[in-house]
Fold:
Amino acid sequence: DIVMTQSPDSLAVSLGERATINCKSSQSVFYSSNIKNHLAWYQQKPGQPPKLLIYWASTRESGVPDRFSGSGSGTDFTLTISSLQAEDVAVYYCQQYYSTPPTFGQGTKVEIK
Amino acid sequence: QVQLQESGPGLVNPSQTLSLTCTVSGASVSSGSYDWIWIRQPAGKGLEWIGRIHTTGSTNYNPSLESRVTISIDTSTNQFSLKLSSVTAADTALYYCARGDQWFDYWGQGTLVTVSS
Structure:
């Protein structure tokens, strides 16, 4: 299985400031045949299921605010919230879909400072 | 709008079989090129992919659970189901059903299953 490791486990950011979450995979999730990174990001608020934010490492799902952006390639990826809003308090997960079974990072909790 | 809803017993005895159903509305489990997924989340922990069934009926399971898992589709009711046998306390979790063949774009609200006598 591909192991996904996120850092940090938690972070506190002031409203309006930037939040950056890192995700590292134990092997590359870049698929040369379609020239894409097989990585997604989710947001999970308390008592709710995860919500898809980003796929193909950097493509925002329809309806996701543009303050959320994804970047990276190969084994190292980043989710950035450019200007943190109160409603962004949640746990964020990365997920690889390069190989079966799909695997998730352990999650990063984002709070308001 | 696609909606998914899990249902099933909230309490299962150790060594018994956990059985859950996901009812889908707004989409057909038998058409389109989608996978129908089960994922679980122990309390306060991360997400574990259990397995998937494609609209064609083909299945894939997490190797860590494969010997105990069966996922099936019922096209007459537009549902898909999970069976997990020989459960232990380690199987206590919030169980989600979802849709997606690579990423997962629609999720149910989840159902808590506790394994205890």
Observations:
- The longest strand of chain A covers residues 19-25.
